[in-house]
Specification:
four-stranded mixed β-sheet, Beta Polymerase, domain 2, disordered N terminus, single chain, 4 helices
Length: 121
């Protein structure tokens, strides 16, 4: 069940945040699309942190790949430099994420329940 507390949606983001998420997603798909299965925005934004320019993204990969994750982190760093928006990334390979969901790990269930899918293969 999704929390009623300020679920993140693109309409709740500032124009700078929307542009950063859209540019990051487009760059990620362009550069690594064949290795990524989905990109989702997740989390809540309490009023205390509403002015924060930090957004949480869940990225599911076709398979675990440290070099790919480093490349994705570089793209996020580029967005920080270009826009001032810090993208917190959580990368999992798809099979690992599904296993963790079946195990009902609280963090994984929270990520799954409170996400807004931006792109899927």
């Amino acid at each position: 069940m999704t929390s009623p507390l300020n679920r993140v949606s693109l309409s709740q983001l500032s124009s700078v945040e929307r542009e950063a998420v859209e540019a990051f997603s487009a760059s990620l798909v362009d550069r690594f699309g064949g290795k990524v299965t989905s990109i989702s925005l997740h989390g809540t934004r309490s009023q205390l942190f509403q002015q924060s320019r930090e957004l949480n993204l869940l990225i599911l990969l076709r398979k675990e790949d440290a070099d790919l994750e480093a490349g994705i982190e570089e793209l996020a760093l580029d967005q920080l430099v270009d826009t001032g928006v810090y993208l917190t990334l959580r990368c999992f390979d798809r099979a690992q994420f599904e296993t963790f969901k079946e195990m009902e790990l609280p963090m994984i269930l929270s990520l799954e329940a409170d996400k807004l899918q931006l792109w899927a293969a």
